[in-house]
Amino acid sequence: MNNKAVPDPPLSSAKARAAFNRAIDHYLPTQGVHLEDLSFEDALLYTASLLDSASATTLNCSELLPGPERAKILAVWHLLEMAKTTVDRSIECLNPVKTPA
Q: Where does the source fall among the domains of life (predicted)?
């Protein structure tokens, strides 16, 4: 009997992890970004970019999953979209669009 608290990952997990890491490196580049040096506005813009990437990645992953798992991923996608909308609105408040009089 196996008494392990955490089961061994499937054999294909090394390939899946490598693909995941490539996606993270592509969608969430962090080279050259020093979070402690960001202004408030730049931090919001960077957060919007991260949320956009996370949302796109989540939506893409949902296409590969069956019913119940897909529903969970789409729920996370919806939360990411709501967070991105909130951040986008915050950016708009910092830089209101001036309408011609």
A: Bacteria
Task: Read off the DSSP letter of residue 35.
Answer: G
Contact 77, 55 (CB under 8 A): yes
Q: Which two tokens stand for residue 59?
A: 């939506």
The 10s digit of each residue's pLDDT in 33-66 is: 677 788 888 888 888 988 998 999 898 888 888 8
29 Cβ partners below 8 Å, 6+ apart? none
Condensed to tens digits (0 to 9), the pLDDT of residues 4-29 reads 555 555 545 667 667 766 766 666 55
30 three-state secondary structure: coil
